[in-house]
Amino acid sequence: MAHIDISSGVRSAVKSFNSWFRSIGTTSDRSWLWGWAWGADNVLTVVDRSPPINFVSRPASFGRLIEDSVMGYGIPMNAFTVSCNDPDSNDSIKNLGCPNLCLIDGGHMPEPEDSWIAIIQRGNCSFVEKVREAQRFGAKAVIVGGDNPDVSGNPDVLINMYSQTDSSDIKIPSTYIKYTDYSHLSNLIAVSNTSTSGIKTVSLQITPDYASWEWYSPILTFIVLLFLPSLLTLITLLIHRFRAARAEQRERAPEDVVQRLPWRVWTGNGWEKHTGPVPPTPTKVGDEPFEESAMLERGCVKCSEENSRDESHENANHPSTSHEDDEVSINPPWFDAQTECAICLNDFAKGDRVRVLPCKHIFHLAEVDEWLIHRKKLCPVCKADVTQPDNPYHHLVNETHNAPTERTPLLSHTQTTNQGGPDHTISTSTTPPSPRSTSHLLIGSLDHATES
Predict the structure, then answer these.
(1) What's the rounded Cα separation, in Å, for the pair 119 and 201?
(2) Number of domains the chain contains
């Protein structure tokens, strides 16, 4: 079944390819392309001989394409026509078929209902003129034989018949055979016992040469079956790689999110917090970066102290907001004790820029940015997602702040009860008792127990 399908597909492809070559034109500068790409692809068979006699032929680049077999009686044009201008000339005897042709007086001619194939020899006029003249007389197809190489000097090989003029009026197919095959075919007709309309003839069949493609069909089937699993595997791998790339993209942090994370600079005696984009590092000696960038790059302690005094003075005039106080208060106890980058395992040096992740872990800025943008959006230490807006330590600090300890008072709010009037009012305070008052109460309770 597969063999039949592939054979049908090959035939359809051959027909389409052949039609396309015909549609590209019929000028002489394109004939070499026709011959190079296609060559001989027709077989001319004398079917009334046993065994059948085959001749290789080449189709013309004009006229109808031979898609299926064409059968008919082969009749030379000079068997019933002569030149209208000079009936006694040698051209009529040579069977050149050049216009204008007229019927022989008192001779026979094929009937209109007969299916016959005209046989003409090359020479004296163009191929398209020969085929057009045979079509005028009702031929179903045309066979053009080569000329004598000893007389014309042309090599006895298959050629491509083309038209230098418009040939859209040609509706019948035509094919070319070599001179030796033409001579053999003419001799077969001369000694034939078959005749139609009183003219000697032989039964001919023109067939497209698809036999070679049919011979290759099992090989094509094997190649398809051999490479189909590999092709499917390749497609599967490409789909898997595409999905993996999409998954990896989802695992990375967007660059704009990473750039908005706070960063700090180690100045030797503390951290300096900064937000926003990181200023570029100057590369030229003559560059004069602004004061803050110079301080950040050099890690100058003196500049840091001066800047700290300026900030303290500004803070005295402009009290800090509650947001800044909350941000400082939620830092875990180990935040200020971080002195080593967990990625490169190196201690922080003066002027090092570090990135502070929402989980409060600190890393060298360039290293952690590379990790977050190109690898994972998780903290290398605690695996916290840096793209989440909530601070994971905010709830932890609140829970720790509200957790009871030994210094937490037993009553968390003031209670006032009236027992019989205003003289029996009991008031409790949320202020825990001092250690001194607690010891006096404990000693008094012991003395009272001893007296009892």
Answers:
(1) 10
(2) 3
Neighbour-count burial for 332-356, b at 16+ CB within 10 Å, e otherwise = eeeeeebeebeeeeeebeeebbbbb
Q: Is the model's pTM score more than 0.85?
A: no
Average pLDDT of the segment spanning 355-368: 87
**Are 228 and 155 in the same domain?**
no
Judge if 145 and 15 occupy the same domain: yes
15-56 residue pLDDT tens: 555 555 445 444 434 444 444 444 447 888 999 888 889 999
3-state secondary structure of 25: coil
Q: Are 8 and 91 part of one and the same domain?
A: yes
Residue 261, pLDDT > 50, answer: yes
Q: What is the pLDDT of residues 304-359, one digit of tens each?
A: 445 445 544 444 444 444 444 444 446 777 877 788 888 888 888 888 888 888 88
**CA–CA dist 203, 189 (Å, integer):** 10
Q: Are 201 and 299 part of one and the same domain?
A: no
Q: For helices 2-23 and 211-251, give the axis angle rounded to 10 degrees.
A: 90
Residue 199 or 450, more confident: 199
Please give the Cα distance from 23 to 18 (Å, whole number).
9
Provide the domain limits for residue 365: 255-282+289-402
> Any residues with CB less than 8 A from the CB of 260 and at least 6 apart, and which?
275, 276
Predicted confidence at residue 286, as pLDDT, reads 43
Give the residue carrying structure tokens 């004296």: 124
CATH number of the domain where residue 183 is located: 3.50.30.30
Tell me which residue of 84, 110, 108, 111 sits closest to 98, measured CA to CA. 84
Strand partners, 117: 74, 141
Neighbours of 152 (CB within 10 A): 13
Question: pLDDT > 90: what percent of the chain?
Answer: 18
For residues 149 and 234, membership in a common domain is answered with: no
User: What are the phi and psi torsion angles at 439 (to 5°)?
Assistant: -70, -40
194 and 49 inside one domain = yes
CA distance 264 to 270: 10
CA atoms of 117 and 204, how far apart (whole Å)? 8
Using the structure block, give the residue that is written with the tokens 């070559």.
21
Q: Which residues share a beta bridge with 123? A: 125
- Could you tell me if 52 and 74 lie in one domain? yes
Q: Judge if 259 and 334 occupy the same domain.
A: yes
Measured distance CA(217)–CA(211) in Å, rounded: 10
440 belongs to a structural domain? no
